[in-house]
Amino acid sequence: MTLSKPNGSPGERGAPVRQRVLEAAERLLRSGKAGFSMRDLAAEAGVSFATPFNQFGSKAGVMHALSGRRIETMAMRYAAATPPVDRAGRIRLAVAVAVAVMLEEPDVNRAVMGSLGTAGPARTDALERSAAFWALAWTGEAMVGVSRRPSASDGPYQLALAFRGALSFWSAGELSDDELRQAALAIADTLAPVPPHLPCRASPG
After folding, report:
1. Fewest CB atoms within 10 Å of the CB: 50, 101, 116, 176?
2. pTM assigned to the model
């Protein structure tokens, strides 16, 4: 049995404890405990009951942070994949990377996505984070932060909304894994069609 540490102990301060709590949440989700409580989370992380609240505010805050982790993983893998020079190719690559990340642990990621409709006590930046990822492919430039709320007319904003919509149907079981891939690529080709003189690039994986 893991014992909780006293609130405010040195081992609970700053970024390391945030990662510890998030890793504990991941373990609970992998074990099929999507309905875990904050008390369950504190026990799994080996921290005081108050620590997850202090770090994230609520369970919704924890799940939003897990979503942010996935977007960071997508961005790192996309950057490591040597993106094509053309926008359509870059966006198709970003779609393939994003779908691959979500399908690595489908049960866990369905739980994360299914929880994002729950509002927490603090405003989240999920939309900004997602749009910043899609801006990597749209502009061909590095992701430089999430400080600006995207405009509805921005291509990255539209990709963020469309991909989130596809994920919501997938997390609800209305789209299979293969249908998620197909829907996401259809979104990419609609928002950034391949020019007639360029071949349609195959998706990696």
Report:
1. 176
2. 0.80
